[in-house]
Design brief:
The protein is 18% helix and 25% strand. It is α+β, with helices and mostly antiparallel strands. The chain has two domains: 2-48, Structural Genomics Hypothetical 15.5 Kd Protein In mrcA-pckA Intergenic Region, Chain A (Roll), CATH 3.10.290; 53-291, Pseudouridine synthase. Strands 5, 8, 9, 10, 13, 14, 15, 16, 17 and 18 form a ten-stranded mixed sheet that branches. A four-stranded antiparallel sheet has the order 2-1-3-4. A hairpin with a 2-residue loop joins strand 3 (42-44) and strand 4. The protein starts with 8 loop residues before the first helix and ends in a 19-residue tail after the last strand. The relative contact order is 0.16. Bound molecules: uracil (URA). Uracil (URA) binds next to helix 4. The site of uracil has 8 residues, from helix 4.
């Protein structure tokens, strides 16, 4: 049912338990009942649920100002408005990005896929590129690496924290660019992590989810995920089932660094003049937002 796009897996389970679903005219309340999509007739409140001929798996580069909540009728733009596909599949966002946050987010009409990618036990790492106000100290970076205390509890240690750049200036114009990889998805987590160590986020972009990078998708544009990418995302095992130390098989951002860039990570960052954020894979000029 969830794969047909009518609701999340949990909502569909509730409907089944409430006796709203029939298979071949008979109410079915047992969860996990198997049906043959080609031969069985499944109805919800007397409407036939058709299995989708195909599912959609889409990667979007979300601009700032677009919301990921489908029910926000006041929002100027909703994430699904960015994708115009014939047949209007019932796409839903896979997780959330704040309205002000840009970058990579997936949309799909496959409830199983959405559920799997958003379930906390899969711990899919996500990389964010943040420009924060002020010069971030080595102690601050270490705190992010170790985990910081937020109102809703301690964060897990970050998978990776890289200081990319700092401005020359001190005072109001000073900034630091940090790449941060975390595997949790709490509300406004990155902004709150930086706030805890005394830095407001000026600009935030999600640049990678698991093995999938934002590279090549202009802001506001989208592309289909490939079969290989979908397989990589869905074949991730929950961490408790991983037997080796290595958490994922795709390259981390550190492994993608050129030798020169990697070398620079071990030293204090080079400074450069402040300019527009260089965090995006696209060249569009953008204003700053405060977090
Ligand atoms: N962390 C944030 O603060 N915002 C997002 O949109 C995602 C992660």
């Amino acid at each position: 049912m969830a794969a047909s796009g009518i609701g999340s897996r949990r909502t569909c389970e509730e409907w089944i338990k409430q006796g709203l679903v029939k298979v071949n005219g008979v109410v079915v309340t047992e969860l996990g009942t198997r049906v043959d999509p080609a031969n069985d007739k499944v109805t919800f409140r007397s409407k036939i649920i058709r299995p989708p001929l195909r599912n959609y798996y889409i990667a979007v580069n979300k601009p700032a100002g677009v919301v990921c909540t489908l029910s926000d009728s006041h929002a100027a733009r909703i994430i699904t408005d960015l994708v115009d596909i014939q047949g209007k599949p019932m796409l839903r966002p896979v997780g959330r990005l704040d309205a002000e946050t840009e970058g990579l987010i997936f949309l799909s009409d496959d409830g199983g896929f959405i559920n799997r990618l958003t379930h906390p036990r899969y711990h899919i790492p996500k990389t964010y590129k943040a420009r924060v106000r002020g010069h971030i100290s080595a102690t601050g970076l270490q705190a992010l690496r170790d985990g910081v205390m937020l109102a809703d509890g301690m964060t897990a240690p970050a998978r990776q924290v890289i200081l990319r750049n700092t401005s020359r200036e001190t005072g109001d114009d000073a900034f630091s660019d940090v790449s941060l990889t975390i595997a949790e998805g709490r509300n406004r987590q990155v902004r709150r992590m930086f706030a805890t160590i005394g830095h407001n986020v000026i600009h935030l972009e999600r640049s990678q989810i698991g093995p999938i990078r934002l590279t090549g998708i202009p802001i506001g544009a989208w592309r289909h995920l490939t079969q290989h990418e979908i397989a990589m995302l869905t074949e991730t095992k929950p961490e408790s089932e991983n037997t080796t130390e290595k958490k994922e098989s795709w390259p981390t951002e550190q492994q993608h660094l050129t030798p020169a860039r990697a070398r620079s990570q071990s030293n204090l960052p080079r400074t450069r003049r402040p300019g527009p954020p260089r965090t995006s894979s696209n060249s569009r000029k953008r204003g700053s937002t405060t977090g």
